[in-house]
């Protein structure tokens, strides 16, 4: 199934500079910025600059350079925000929602980096 990227999504507009953002870190292929509706004291979104909808889309079609830059930027953001465990930070959680079951709101790949408080269990089990 081909991946269809909607270039009018809100993160595409942020990347084009049409909507402001609070940038945490920008690299050649990646942008990290504060979530507009933070769910924890630390809540940063990390997005590739390329037009990728989901993690699996990115993993399938991004270049090695984009992938390395993206993964390293997420790690750097954790370091910059002081959430790395063991160095005074209390740890963090990364989440990437995809599609309907994942309840993805914005159809441009993003990893949420959350921290700054105990985050509770990952999911509530529903039997
Ligand atoms: P999703 O549910 O797709 O995983 O998460 C989308 C995230 O994007 C949400 O946490 C939401 O608060 C954030 N968001 C939506 N619109 C904007 C915006 O215009 N600016 C920023 N910085 N974050 C946004």
Short overview:
The chain is of the alpha+beta class. The protein contains three helices and five strands.
What does this structure look like?
There is one protein chain. The protein has about 130 residues and is an alpha+beta fold. The protein has a single domain (about 10-115), classed as HIT family, subunit A (2-Layer Sandwich), CATH 3.30.428.10. Helix content is about 25%, strand content about 20%. It contains three helices and five strands, in the order αβββααββ. The protein has helices spanning about 10-15, 55-60, 65-80; strands spanning about 25, 30-35, 40-50, 90-95, 110-115. Strands 1-2-3-5-4 form a five-stranded antiparallel beta sheet, with helices on one face. A hairpin with a 3-residue loop joins strand 1 (about 25) and strand 2. It is globular, with a radius of gyration of 15 Å. The mean pLDDT is about 95. The structure holds guanosine-5'-monophosphate. Guanosine-5'-monophosphate binds near residues 34 and 36.
């Amino acid at each position: 199934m081909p991946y269809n990227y909607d270039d009018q999504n809100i993160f595409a507009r942020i990347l084009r500079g049409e909507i402001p953002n609070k940038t945490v870190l920008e690299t050649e292929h990646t942008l990290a910025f504060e979530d507009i509706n933070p769910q924890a004291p630390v809540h940063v979104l990390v997005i590739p600059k390329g037009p990728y909808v989901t993690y699996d889309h990115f993993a399938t079609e991004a270049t090695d350079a984009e992938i390395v830059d993206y993964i390293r930027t997420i790690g750097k953001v954790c370091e910059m925000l002081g959430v790395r465990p063991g160095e005074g930070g209390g740890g963090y959680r990364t989440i990437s929602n995809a599609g309907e079951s994942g309840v993805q709101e914005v159809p441009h790949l993003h990893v949420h980096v959350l921290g700054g408080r105990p985050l509770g269990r990952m999911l509530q089990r529903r039997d």
